[in-house]
């Protein structure tokens, strides 16, 4: 009997009948979804750079499909991101550009209205929008990578200075001090030097226009201080009383206006941080209090203007308020009174990026004429020797045959007969403050130092014997010729800087009689002084005088105001005044007389008149050609 097995029989799957109506609905949903996404993507890409327009069209799409705008925006961001585009980043970039344009509006009311409307369109609080904008300003510096060759070329460019070795051009400086230290007076002295083009404590300045945003002192006080500095209407100085941070747009408009007419503002004084924020509700301890510093940095970059912002110190001698003020400035100086009886002041360079190395520098403040005399670095016992060595090196490198040529430390030491280690130390300090440039030799780590534009030794030899043209610029006797490379080029005529006396001359081929200012009666016949010098003059050499030569004005000469720097009005005898066209030199007494008859370098010759620059003070004066005596030829 055969057993039987019951094997299950597999049944075929049942095929459901097709529902045409349900399938059509699914296809319609897919088509509607595709059309919905296509429309969102199309509007987003069409208005990629116009966030306001894009949001308007996306809102219309949301209403058409009866969904929320947030959902539509999320879909738009997802679709566009798949194509490598970040809509939020594009919207942020557009917001920053729009706010920058609005910030340039002069009318404060209209500016605030537009900012509020923009924040409303972006659906965010105005404070959040402005916070994002200011953070964008902080991080707006482009990311630029340099090859080593490009970096070498970048670092060999000459640094732009407002005050050589002290204040770079186009930066924001914070100067703080306790009341009565003289912080505003120091800036007024800098302003005088900038608009007149005269050295500040022997350091060259970049001449140009100055702007004073004065909100801390009455206008009558500001005018009095301008008069003390002998700043009249002929000098490019403008004062804006009561300026506030809300008027930043007006400041930018004024800077742009001066730049477009070719007369850019070189120095702008902002006095003071507390006064210009008088209308703000933000505490000086909040980070937002320093927002205006970021705006000033932006203006400095765009217009090349140096801003010196005056602030008050706290009881510890540091800048008062938020640290953001300190961090936002490129340079931070602190001024303090060292000795009230002597007028000594200590200037602390606390932070620097390109300017004076950090340290404590000593100045003497003169109450009578509100001037600051640089005395040297505090505690530097070798100041006299170091400063003398520095000036000798500087003058030697500025000679026409050496200018632009790189020299090693050993070469400079051998030429000048100086100690090699001393020269190396001094050159490092000179490089740090920007008075010399350096670059490494191709082989080894040896550094070579130079001033001016780099050139090869062959170029120097081809131009060193080029004769001077006596009438090189007869149309403009006030213009400095190319051969006038510096106030002093001669090793024999050097400036000495020490902790007691600062930058002052110590050696000169013209030596006045011993203690002549104290032992000789002021009514002495000054015609006899011309014969009391040790170095003989070149007789009957008027026709030999050329630009760049060293000369001495005679005691019987006549000073001409046209083309000359103004004389200190307090030292001008009656009946002469500061507006006199000519003044006999022998009618002047005291230090000014000895200055006007001291060694000077010829910077221009125009017919029978000659313009010279005093080797000690840098003051320019015009005399008759017959009133000067040739002391030494420029290549002699």
Automatic annotation (TrEMBL):
What species was this sequence derived from? Leptolyngbya boryana NIES-2135
Task: List the keywords (alphabetical).
Answer: ATP-binding, Helicase, Hydrolase, Nucleotide-binding
One matching Pfam family: AAA_25
| Residue segments, region Disordered | 450-488
Q: Which GO terms describe its molecular function?
A: helicase activity
Instruction: Supply the InterPro entries for this chain.
Output: P-loop_NTPase, WH_DNA-bd_sf
Q: Does the keyword Metal-binding apply?
A: no
Name of protein? Putative replicative DNA helicase
The answer to whether the entry has keyword Nucleotide-binding is yes
Composition skew (Basic and acidic residues), residue ranges:
452-472
